[in-house]
Amino acid sequence: MMTETVEMIHEDALPGEERKLHPQPEWQPRYPGSGRLDGKVAIVTGADSGIGRAVAALFAREGANVVIAYLCEHEDAAETEKIVRAEGRQSLVFAGDLGEKAICDELVQRTMAAFGRIDVLVNNAGEQHPDKNIEDITEEQLRRTFQTNIFSMFFLTQAVMPHLREGAAIINCTSVTMYKGSEELLDYSSTKGAIAAFTRSLSENLVGKGIRVNAVAPGPIWTPLNPFGGATKEKLAHFGESTPMARPGQPNEVAPSFLFLACEDSSYMSGQVLHPNGGMIVGS
């Protein structure tokens, strides 16, 4: 039970600040690096906090220079930058709405100017807005959720394609809600289904070029997305208890799935989805 959870600001403060979360999410890598991403450059979206921060930290420990893309939480992004640099790696911090194609193009241009290459793209940024009734989902919210969660993946993938070489990897973040559904996250769950289909289709499209495309479908993970995404105080108090492990996961329990799919350990995998979800059995 998340007994220490304080009352959070909700949707008007999206995407939310990790530094205000109690208890603090665990992003720290759990083991020494082994050079699995030495010399590589990774773009990680939503890297200011949550799963994105944990992925950035682990990638840096494994030798990658990391581009920290985020929307507007500047203090959180600055903390992620410190984490990456503490691992002895270079970083580029980029703020912008990736639901806009021009912003995605700019991000890639700045990455190439700074590092001259792109090896890994992690499409992780997302937002959610709980609604009990489908009639409560406004047209503005519906467009916004799809723009952030799936349009951004199309735009950013289009932007990086001229720069990806054989051996590059794209990893998309979908969700357990794609498989199990969520009665209060209709638009969010729909985008996650689109992401799974996008992953499998893009894999088929790019596998001949030697570019692998996979996804990760986390279960309930303790990140700013949930309290700042409109979850009630009551729901947060029991967050993650419905999983077989009876607890929420931590970002650093999800990040190794992204690392595995980013490095050569998964060289014979494409079009697949990994499920760090606390033991829930879902169709893959």
TrEMBL record:
The keyword Oxidoreductase is annotated on this UniProt entry: yes
Record-annotated membrane-spanning stretches: none
Chain intervals with Basic and acidic residues compositional bias: 7-23
Pfam assignment, any one: adh_short_C2
Stretches for region Disordered: 1-33
CDD domains given in the database record: SDR_c1
Entry-linked InterPro entries: NAD(P)-bd_dom_sf, Sc_DH/Rdtase_CS, SDR_fam
Annotated keywords: Oxidoreductase
Superkingdom: Bacteria
Family: Belongs to the short-chain dehydrogenases/reductases (SDR) family.
Name of the protein described by the UniProt record: NAD(P)-dependent dehydrogenase (Short-subunit alcohol dehydrogenase family)
Organism of provenance: Sphingobium lignivorans
